Amino acid sequence: MSSEENLPKVAFLGPLGTYSHQCARNYFGENVEYVDYSTITKVFQSVGPEVPYALVPQENTIYGAVIETYDTLRLPEVGVDKFVRGERAISIQHCLVVRQGVQLKDVVKIVSHEQAFGQCTRFLQDNFPNAILEKRPSTAEAAQSLLTPEDDLEGERAAICSSVCTTIFDGLEVARSSIQNESENYTRFYVLSTSLRSTPPKLPSKPQLRRALVRIGLPAISNPSESSSRLTHHRPLHLLCPLKTFTSSNWKSLARRWSIEARMLHQVASPKRLG
Question: Would you give the DSSP letter of residue 215?
Fold first, then answer.
């Protein structure tokens, strides 16, 4: 049996070379075996006896909360056999990557994920105003595609992606670094586990404050004809304020009752209770 077969598995939003993969490597190092999935929901669903750990994106400083992650965290198995065990934030540093030896003056097409294009508009306008921009499912897939010849293209291609792609796909190199519009671009990830007692096999890091993730759910509306005041009266949050005016200051008031510091409040509508 190989040493890799003895390593615990960690699921992440793939493919290899994405920022999720980079964050997972920063957190777990070579202490685990990495398994990639195509969606956040599939990453969440994979957590179990075969894949005891996972890493999912929670929030970006530019784009805000990742709704698909919050949709999974509202599921009943959270707190029963799936737990949030930690967090990790990484700086999103986009790079322009080319095949080894390619000159930037010869680049006529740039490939990447649409969000990466949106985060690098100034660089593209200043340096490649006439380049063809081609969308790909992920920045990692864009980088890997450079290794496949495109015979009908008169010129060279480049990709916007993470520098980690050059360590995964042989034959690529970084042509320009930190090409994103905003230097303060970070994404926070949650580390998931099947147990509260097992210790994730992460790399050594500085001690961090212990935090708790509190989920507050409201009862389903059984009779839509009931008045809003009656519904609010029978819901737990009425002890602080009417439901529609529940804000971060109200949440901090609730947190003070538990003698804890409230860092943030995310209000996410249930897909079954809109309107």
Answer: -
Q: Looking at residue 150, what is its pLDDT?
A: 83
Check whether 170 has a pLDDT greater than 50.
Answer: yes
Same-domain pairing of 15 and 81: yes
**pTM (predicted TM-score):** 0.71
Instruction: Residue 264: give the domain boundaries.
Output: 214-269
What's the one-letter identity of residue 210? R
Which pLDDT score is estimated for 131? 96
Among the candidates 148, 176, 204, a domain finishes at 176
pLDDT bucket at 248, cuts 50 / 70 / 90: low
In a domain, 207, yes or no: no
Q: What is the domain count for the chain?
A: 3
Query: For residue 212, what pLDDT is reported?
Result: 57
State the CATH number of the domain containing residue 189.
3.40.190.10
Tell whether the torsion through CA atoms of 153, 167, 180 and 37 is positive or negative: positive
59 Cβ neighbours under 8 A, 6+ residues apart: 65, 66, 187, 188
